[in-house]
Write a structure and sequence with these properties.
The chain is α/β, with parallel strands linked by helices and 399 residues long. The chain contains 15 helices and 10 strands. It has helices at 9-23, 26-38, 40-55, 73-80, 121-133, 153-162, 178-187, 200-207, 212-224, 245-255, 272-286, 299-303, 352-356, 359-367, 379-390, and strands spanning 89-92, 138-141, 166-171, 190-194, 230-236, 259-263, 294-297, 321-324, 329-331, 343-346. It has a 10-stranded mixed sheet with strand order 7-6-5-4-3-2-1-8-9-10. β8 and β9 form a beta hairpin. α10 (245-255) runs parallel beside α11. It is globular, with a radius of gyration of 23 Å. The structure holds iron/sulfur cluster. Iron/sulfur cluster binds next to loops.
Length: 399
Amino acid sequence: MLPIAPNTVAEDIADVTADVTADVTADVTADVTADVTAGIHGLAERVAYRYAGAERKHRFRFLFDPLRLLVQTGFIERYVAGGNPFPPSVEIDPSNVCNHDCGFCIYHSMHREDRRERLSREKLLSLVDELHALRCRSILFVGGGEPMTNPHTVEAIERAAALGISTGLVTNGSLIDGSHAARLKRAATYVRFSFDAATRDTHLALHRRDDFDRIVRNLRLLAEAEGSGTIGTGYFITDANVHEIFANAQLVKDTGADYIQFKTYSGLPTESKLHERVLHAVERAIDLSDGNFDVHVMDRIFENHCFQVRGYSRCHFQAMKTVINADGSLYLCAQKRTDPAGRIGNVHEQSLAEIWNGVKRSRVVNELDLVSCPYCVHDRQNKSIEFMARFRAPHRGFY
Ligand code: SF4
């Protein structure tokens, strides 16, 4: 008997085409076939494979992989067994003030003149101590607003580092001077600039502040400073800056930074003409990856998904990480920062342990309607933890 040869791609496409023909007209079939083989899907697949090749050689491979959570084995085992351990990782917003004014910022409403909350030096440092006592292993200083508008953020990072806690800082980069650069490079595990233009004009149009040159200078200061901290940038792609993707990546690489990350809005599909431009530009930028510089591309740039179905029984991620805002509120997750229904307590009224084990948090978690959540960047993590917690399938010896 002749061996059965695997289908060629052409044969697979012919099979798909035949199936589709059964249900729809020949015209539609032709469109589908053309789209799968030659349209945006083909382009996305080609660029994604090119990226996969570069990604396997990254110095900081898996830096943005959601499945990093799964290496927190002891913590996850306790959670899956029904415990309520305090999360090993927390986000702190030192300030709700921002010196930039980006129209695309999802936290824009928190920067209003009538808010302007900042955590005091005493509160910020005592939170670090409290988190250390709760065995927290990493703190990301982020926003909310721009974390460097709080004059005590660098001191808090140093305090955490001295206690053995890993720290990250996500910043627009405009307020980091020479003395900060040296201190941050020594104390922080990483510093990431939100930096998404290659020219003063585009930066001004996006961030509504004319400080492009200062940000480039500050990025270079950090990259050249002594210390072990990783320095990178995040480029949020829109139709206003897609044309500067490659030039920005080249500029970031020239400063001596370690990596650049490209991302788009999650859950908002990029329309096809823009998507095509994004893919072509990202493809060029990927080629800048080498032994000293990683180009990271978020999966959503290739997939361009627009919805998810949250089949899990509850949100598990809210138990994996919490957010402490500059007004003292604790939130279920970063994406609930602007949603009063996601507030689980306030550090000006209770300790972190009291909030975590308290009635209010338990009520908010139990009443959480997953359908009301936005497109969630923690979907894969929730699915993974659900699987680990609920795996009772028959035929369990098969996989
Ligand atoms: S958006 Fe909803 S599902 Fe996602 S982490 Fe937050 S609470 Fe959980």
